[in-house]
Amino acid sequence: MKFITVRDFRIRPGSVWESLEKSKEVVITSNGKPIALLTGVSDVNFDETLRAIRRARAELVVSKMRETSLKKGLSKLTAKNIEAEIISVRKARKQC
Description:
By secondary structure, this protein is of the alpha+beta class.
């Protein structure tokens, strides 16, 4: 995987596109930290690639939610506790 700075991306975009053709993925960095991922697509695989990226992002979010739940002890809530929390939030919404 090729890493390219924002500055290089701005100054020499042609080399970025060449790198993308060769390696299929290019990471754009700013101050040494990754900020974007460019991935090659075509009109043939665009929809499939987009779905795969969105699915991977969703799985990452769910994984982080589960991790946070375990750290906070929320995984031990009973169905009654969860239902009570839902009712409480709904009542608070109605009052607003």
